[in-house]
UniProtKB/TrEMBL annotation:
Protein name, as recorded: Uncharacterized protein
Amino acid sequence: MTLHPITLQYQGETEMSGGDLVGILMVGKQL
């Protein structure tokens, strides 16, 4: 599973805006 890069982006995006969580989930599904 490639959750490492997604987790890193998730943490960074969460700091800026929690709304990006949906976007990251979509990226995870695409990967």
